C-alpha cells in the first residue's frame, strides 16, 4: 500500500492536469489550520505568473475537478489560492483497514536495503558509566532499531575505549600498590593467574586516583605512558593484566547497558583496530597521502570549496604515537574488511564534529572506504541540570548512570504508590522500573538530538504533559479496555473499523494514518524525536476520543466493535513506536 499523503497528492495532481496545469503542483500536506481543514495544497500559488491567472481562479478550477470525489468530503478554494480539503470518512476507514490488515501497518521498507553500522556507546573500560554516557546509548539504540525497522541490515558497535593511556595509568598504579604481584616480576616465566588481582570496586577507584596523579606528577605520567607502550607492544604480563581489566569491566558494562535495554552486536574496541595501524600508515605513506610536518605524520584534507580552514588529519605524533584519529581510521579499515558497510553512523557528542570531519575526509581521500560509503555524524548536545549547567551530584561530582537510574526509579515508585493504582509489591516495582526507564529515555529522545536539554526529574516522571509516563499510561489504558472487552466475552479476531461517528474519533484515525510515513521520515532524518512528537500527538487524540466515548457500555454491537478495532490498531501503533524508541509499556500501572 502507499502512504496516505502520496495517494492524496496523486489524486489532486490528476485534478491539476485535468484543469490544464502541471501535475507537479498537486502536492498535498497536512493543514496548518486544522480548525479549517485537514489537508491543503498550495500549488496554485506557484502557477499564477506562468498561467497569467489569479491563484484563486486556478484553485477554483482544480476544486471543480475534485467535486464528487470519493476521497474528499469537502474541497474549497480560499484566498489567496489555497485548496482546503477534508477526507471522506469512508476513504479514511478503508485506508486504516488496509493498515490494520498489514503486519507492517503499511510501512514501505526501504527500496534498497543498506548494510549499516551504528557506532554508539563509546565508554572507556575500567570506569563506571556516568550520565555523560546516557545520550549516546539511548539515541544510538533508537537509531539502530529505526534503521533496522525500515528494512536495513544493521550492526551496533560499542567501540570501547580500551587501549589508551588509561590502561597504562591503571597498570602503573597497580605496580606501586601491589609490587609483589607476578605481573611486575621480570624474571617470572610461569602461567599468570586466571583470577584478577583486584575487584571491580578497586579498579573503579584506581583509575581516577592514577589520573589525578598523572596531572600533578610528570614522572608518574611518563611511567604510565611507558606502561601503555609496553602493553601495546604485547608484553605478556601487561597483556594478562589488560585481560583481567577487560573481563571485569565489560561484564559490568553489559549489566548496566542491559538495565538501559541497550544492546550491541559487536563489543569491539580500540585494541581491535591497533593491528591495522602499521599497514594503514605504510600504505598512506607509500601512496603519497601521509607526509611529515614538524615531525608528525599528517594527511592534507583541505578542499577547494572549504569556507573555513580544516586542519590536516594527524596520523602519528612526532614521537610515533597513534591518536584517536589513527584508531578511528584503523577501525574503518577493520569494518571495511570484515563487514563492507554501505553506511556508518556515529552517535557521538557534537563537540567532536571537527574530529569526525577530519576522519571522514581522510578515509575517503586515502581509499580506506569507497567514495560510495556514507559516513554520518549524528552529534548530540549535552544533558544539563536544572541550573542549565552540567548535570552533577549534590556534592558537585559526575553522577554515575546507575545512581541516576535508581533515583528516577525511586521517584517513579513513590508517585505510583501515592496514586490509586491496583499494583502492589513486586508487580508495582516492576511497573515502576519500566516506567522509570521510559521517563529517562523519552525525556532524552523527545528533544532533537543536536540540542542541549535540561534533565528535570519532576517533569520527566510526571503523568501529565509530553512525558514517557503519560505515553505509557495511555497505552496501558488501551490495554485495560481491550482486556475488559475480552473478559466480557468479546473477541479481537476479525473486527472491522467503521466510519468515524465524531470529530474526536476522526482526529484519532487521521493521526494513526500517518504512522507509516512518519517512520520513513524519521529514518530519513535520523530523528527519533519525530517519533516522540508523533506518539504524543496520538496520545492526546486518543485520550480526547476516550473521554468522549463510552466504549465498554455501548449497546450497539457494531459500533462497539468498530471502536475496539480502532483501539487495537492504536495499541499496535503505539507499541511499534515504543519498540523503536527502546521502550515498552507494562500491562498495568
Which descriptors would you attach to this protein?
single chain; 589 residues; alpha/beta; Gyrase A, domain 2; Isoleucyl-tRNA Synthetase, Domain 1; four-stranded antiparallel sheet; four-stranded parallel sheet; 13 strands; 52% helix; globular
Task: Write up what this structure looks like.
- The chain is an alpha/beta fold.
- Among the domains are: 4-87, Arginyl tRNA synthetase N-terminal domain (Gyrase A, domain 2, 2-Layer Sandwich); 165-259, no CATH class; 401-581, Isoleucyl-tRNA Synthetase, Domain 1.
- Helix content is 52%, strand content 10%.
- Helix 1 (4-18) packs across helix 3, helix 19 (515-525) packs antiparallel against helix 20 and helix 20 (528-548) packs antiparallel against helix 21 (557-581).
- The two termini are 36 Å apart.
- The mean pLDDT is 95.
- Strand line-up of the largest beta sheet: 1-2-4-3
Query: Can you say what the CATH homologous superfamily of the domain at 401-581 is?
Result: Isoleucyl-tRNA Synthetase, Domain 1
Arithmetic mean pLDDT: 95
- Which secondary-structure class do the elements indicate? alpha/beta
**Residues in helix, %:** 40-55%
The CATH class of the domain at 401-581 turns out to be: Mainly Alpha
Shape label: globular
CATH topology of the domain at 401-581: Isoleucyl-tRNA Synthetase, Domain 1
CATH architecture of the domain at 401-581: Orthogonal Bundle
Largest sheet: 4 strands, antiparallel
Q: How far apart are the termini?
A: 36 Å
Enumerate the spans where pLDDT stays under 50 for 5 or more consecutive residues: none
Radius of gyration: 29 Å
Which percent range describes the beta-strand content? Answer: 5-15%
Amino acid at each position: 500500500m502507499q502512504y496516505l499523503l502520496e495517494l492524496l497528492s496523486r489524486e489532486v495532481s490528476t485534478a491539476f492536469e485535468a484543469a490544464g496545469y502541471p501535475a507537479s503542483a498537486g502536492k498535498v500536506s497536512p493543514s496548518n489550520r486544522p480548525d479549517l481543514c485537514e489537508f491543503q495544497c498550495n500549488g496554485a500559488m506557484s502557477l499564477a505568473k506562468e498561467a497569467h491567472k489569479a491563484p484563486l481562479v486556478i484553485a477554483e478550477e482544480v476544486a471543480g475537478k475534485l467535486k464528487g470525489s470519493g476521497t474528499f468530503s469537502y474541497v474549497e478554494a480560499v484566498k489567496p489560492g489555497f485548496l482546503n480539503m477534508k477526507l471522506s470518512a469512508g476513504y479514511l476507514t478503508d485506508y486504516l483497514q488496509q493498515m490494520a490488515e498489514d503486519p507492517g501497518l503499511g510501512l514501505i521498507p526501504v527500496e534498497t536495503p543498506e548494510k549499516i553500522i551504528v557506532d554508539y556507546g563509546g565508554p572507556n573500560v575500567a570506569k563506571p558509566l556516568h550520565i555523560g554516557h546516557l545520550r549516546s546509548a539511548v539515541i544510538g539504540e533508537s537509531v539502530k532499531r529505526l534503521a533496522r525497522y525500515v528494512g536495513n541490515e544493521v550492526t551496533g558497535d560499542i567501540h570501547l575505549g580500551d587501549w589508551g593511556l588509561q590502561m597504562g595509568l591503571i597498570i602503573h598504579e597497580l605496580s606501586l600498590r601491589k609490587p609483589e604481584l607476578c605481573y611486575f616480576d621480570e624474571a617470572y616465566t610461569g602461567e599468570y593467574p586466571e583470577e584478577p588481582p583486584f575487584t571491580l570496586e578497586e579498579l573503579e577507584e584506581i583509575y581516577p586516583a592514577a589520573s589525578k596523579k598523572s596531572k600533578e606528577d610528570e614522572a608518574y605520567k611518563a611511567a604510565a605512558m611507558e606502561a601503555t607502550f609496553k602493553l601495546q607492544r604485547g608484553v605478556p604480563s601487561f597483556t594478562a593484566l589488560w585481560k583481567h581489566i577487560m573481563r571485569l569491566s565489560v561484564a559490568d558494562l553489559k549489566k548496566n547497558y542491559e538495565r538501559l535495554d541497550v544492546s550491541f552486536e559487536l563489543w569491539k574496541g580500540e585494541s581491535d583496530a591497533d593491528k591495522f595501524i602499521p599497514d594503514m600508515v605504510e600504505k598512506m605513506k607509500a601512496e603519497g597521502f601521509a607526509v611529515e610536518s614538524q615531525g608528525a605524520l599528517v594527511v592534507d584534507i583541505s578542499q577547494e570549496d572549504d569556507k573555513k580552514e580544516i586542519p590536516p588529519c594527524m596520523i602519528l605524533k612526532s614521537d610515533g604515537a597513534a591518536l584517536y584519529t589513527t584508531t578511528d581510521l584503523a577501525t574503518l579499515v577493520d569494518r571495511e574488511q570484515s563487514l563492507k558497510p554501505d553506511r556508518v553512523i556515529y552517535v557521538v557528542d557534537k563537540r567532536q564534529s571537527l574530529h569526525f570531519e577530519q576522519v571522514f575526509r581522510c578515509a575517503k581521500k586515502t581509499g580506506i572506504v569507497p567514495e560510495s560509503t556514507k559516513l554520518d555524524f549524528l552529534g548530540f548536545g549535552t544533558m544539563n541540570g536544572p541550573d542549565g549547567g552540567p548535570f552533577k551530584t549534590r556534592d558537585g561530582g559526575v553522577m554515575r548512570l546507575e545512581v541516576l537510574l535508581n533515583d528516577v526509579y525511586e521517584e517513579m515508585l513513590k508517585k505510583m504508590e501515592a496514586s490509586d493504582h491496583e499494583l502492589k509489591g513486586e508487580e508495582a516495582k516492576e511497573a515502576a522500573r519500566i516506567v522509570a526507564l521510559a521517563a529517562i529515555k523519552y525525556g532524552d529522545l523527545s528533544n532533537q538530538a543536536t540540542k542541549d536539554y535540561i534533565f528535570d526529574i519532576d517533569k520527566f516522571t510526571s503523568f501529565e504533559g509530553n512525558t514517557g509516563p503519560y505515553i505509557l499510561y495511555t497505552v496501558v489504558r488501551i490495554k485495560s479496555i481491550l482486556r475488559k472487552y475480552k473478559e466480557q466475552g468479546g473477541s479481537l479476531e476479525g473486527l472491522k473499523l467503521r466510519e468515524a461517528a465524531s470529530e474526536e474519533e476522526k482526529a484519532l484515525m487521521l493521526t494513526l494514518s500517518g504512522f507509516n510515513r512518519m517512520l520513513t521520515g524519521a529514518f530519513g532524518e535520523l530523528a527519533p524525536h519525530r517519533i516522540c512528537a508523533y506518539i504524543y500527538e496520538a496520545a492526546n487524540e486518543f485520550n480526547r476520543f476516550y473521554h468522549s466515548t463510552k466504549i465498554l457500555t455501548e449497546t450497539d454491537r457494531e459500533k462497539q466493535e468498530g471502536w475496539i478495532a480502532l483501539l487495537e490498531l492504536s495499541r499496535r501503533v503505539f507499541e511499534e513506536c515504543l519498540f523503536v524508541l527502546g521502550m515498552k509499556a507494562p500491562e498495568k500501572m
